[in-house]
Structure formats: C-alpha cells, structure tokens
Amino acid sequence: MSDNVLINQIREAVIDGQAKVAVAKVEEALAEGLNPEVILHDGLISAMTEVGQLFEDGEFFVPEMLIAARAMKGALELLKPLLVDQGVEPLGKIAIGTVKGDLHDIGKSLVAMMLEGAGFEVADLGVDVSPEKFIAEVKNGAQIVAMSALLTTTMPNMKTTIDAIVEAGLRSQTVIMVGGAPVTQAYAEQIGADGYASDASAAVRKAHELIGQ
Ligand code: B12
User: Fold this and answer.
1) 200 lines ligand 1 (CB under 6 A)
2) Does residue 110 sit in the same domain as residue 71?
3) Hey, whose CA ends up nearest to atom 40 of ligand 1?
4) Cα angle vertex 196, ends 193, 202, to 5°?
5) Which domain covers residue 167, as residue numbers?
C-alpha cells in the first residue's frame, strides 16, 4: 500500500478515536519500512492538530478529544522504542511535568521520551504538577526543570513555579525550560525561563544547549 494512504489511515483512525485501528495501521506502516518520525509527525501529531481544530469549530467535544488522545497514546507506545535510542550515558537529570491545573500529557510525554532517548535521565512527574513537586526534584538533583502547559489559563502556573523556585533559594541550581502549544519564546522570556522549544526535537537541542553540551 502507498505510504501516503497508510499515513492517512493512521490520521483518520486517531481522529475517529479508533485505537485498535490506529495501532494496527502503525504496525503495518512500520512493517512496510516507514520512518517512525514520519509516522509520528504526519500521522499522529497531524491528527491531534486536526482534532484541536474540530474542537475549536464546535464539531468535536471533550469526549471525542479524549478518545482521540487515547488512540494517539496507544500508537505512540509502539513508536516509543524506535524513537528512543538505547544505552546512552546519562547526560544530566531533567524533571518534567505539566503544570498545576493542566491535564494534557501527550506533548509532555513525547518531550520526555525524546529527552530520554537523547541520553538524559528523566523524572516524569506527570500532570497537574505543583510547584512543591518541582522544587522537591530540584532538591533531588534535577539540573533542568521542564514545564508543559496547553491551556492559556494554566500558563501562568509556569511563572508561579519559577517564583516558588526563586523563593526557595534554588534558582541558581537549575535551568528552566518551558513549552506547550500556547507558549512562545517571548512568554518564556517574560516569565524568566531560561529556554523555550516548540517541539520535542527542538526540546532536546535546547536541553543540550542549556546545560552546555
Ligand atoms: C487531546 C486534547 C485534550 C485531551 C487531553 C488528553 C491527554 N491525555 O493529554 C482532553 C480531552 C483531556 C482535553 C481536555 C481539555 N482541553 Co484540550 N486539547 C487536546 C488537543 C486536541 C490536543 C493536544 C495534544 O495532545 N497535542 C499533540 C501534542 C503532541 O502537541 P503539544 O501538546 O503541543 O506538544 C508539543 C509541543 O507543544 C512541545 N511541548 C509540549 N510540552 C512541552 C514542554 C517543554 C518543556 C518543551 C520544551 C516543549 C513542549 O513539544 C510537543 C511535541 O512536539 C488540543 C488542541 C491542540 N491542537 O493543541 C486541545 C486544547 C489544548 N484543549 C483545550 C481545552 C479548552 C480543553 C478543556 C478546557 C476542555 C473542556 N472544556 O473541558 C480541557 C482542560 C482539561 C485540563 N484541566 O487540562 C484548548 C485550549 C484553549 C486555550 N486557549 O487554552 C485546545 C487548544 C483545543 C482548542 N483548539 O480549543 N484536551
């Protein structure tokens, strides 16, 4: 089957929330030798962008977004071992999480996965992460704090977390990286973060840059 047909079938399965079909089609695409990164970007991420658009247009509601997200996660699990290189020396410790009040974890998990693959030791704190939890990881030796936010209403919690790190006297011990669809370089600078990246590959480059490697 042509590559484009398969990629489209993966996209449609994710948009329709058909987890089993999405997984089966990703398996088929891998068996046909398609590049995992192409499957990720043109199939899975592109599907979630479309889902966001459908939600914005009032054609999708939360349940549809949720089942699409489940289908995406199932397919992502298959790609994970292929995107993550094995057996690299740890480069430094990164604590990553989605900020307080925010439950979106697909982008954050993708960034965590790529950082791990690039050889960083990653502590994934999950979603709805309080400033206290990030602070505990800095005390625990995290050289980078990476925060994700997908909602304009939770973006300010990145600043709250940075302020709490400053207040705890730990700002000089860690570098702070932020990201997520509504976050920009300008916003990162405004809240006093050290770095911003727009996607998972850029996040890996930024992490290297931030800890001087
Ligand atoms: C899936 C989804 C959901 C799922 C989440 C499931 C899950 N387990 O994650 C569910 C259904 C739970 C959900 C709920 C809600 N959602 Co929602 N959701 C989405 C959707 C469709 C896709 C997000 C996604 O996974 N994208 C794919 C990933 C790969 O992309 P990404 O997250 O942007 O991550 C990439 C980069 O941003 C970057 N990155 C991400 N994090 C980080 C961190 C660092 C450190 C770095 C460097 C980089 C980085 O790298 C990633 C990989 O390339 C978006 C639409 C969209 N297009 O963003 C809406 C969207 C984010 N949701 C939205 C809304 C409104 C909601 C709800 C409030 C809806 C409601 N009325 O209840 C709730 C809020 C729940 C909460 N408290 O968090 C709005 C936000 C609008 C706004 N201005 O704030 C959006 C934009 C939809 C829309 N177009 O209106 N949602």
Assistant:
1) yes
2) no
3) 180
4) 150
5) 93-210
pTM higher than 0.70 for the full model?
Answer: yes
Q: Whose CA is nearest to atom 83 of ligand 1?
A: 152
Ligand 1 binding pocket includes 67 (Cβ within 6 Å):
no
Name the average pLDDT for the chain. 93
Cα 3 from Cα 188, distance rounded (Å): 38
Q: Does residue 184 belong to any structural domain of this protein?
A: yes
Evaluate: CB of 197 within 6 angstroms of ligand 1: yes
3-state secondary structure of 46: helix
Output the pLDDT for position 81: 86
Confidence of residue 213 (pLDDT cuts 50, 70, 90): low
pLDDT at 209 over 60: yes
Q: Is 103 in the pocket of ligand 1 (CB under 6 A)?
A: yes
Ligand 1 contact, 97 CB (< 6 A): no
Digit-coded pLDDT (tens) for 31-87 = 999 999 899 999 998 998 899 899 989 999 989 988 998 999 899 889 988 887 655
CATH number, domain with residue 105: 3.40.50.280
Q: Residue 212's pLDDT is what?
A: 79
What's the token pair of residue 171? 């700002």
Distance CA 158, CA 168 (A): 15
Q: Which helix (H) or strand (E) holds 144?
A: strand 144-148
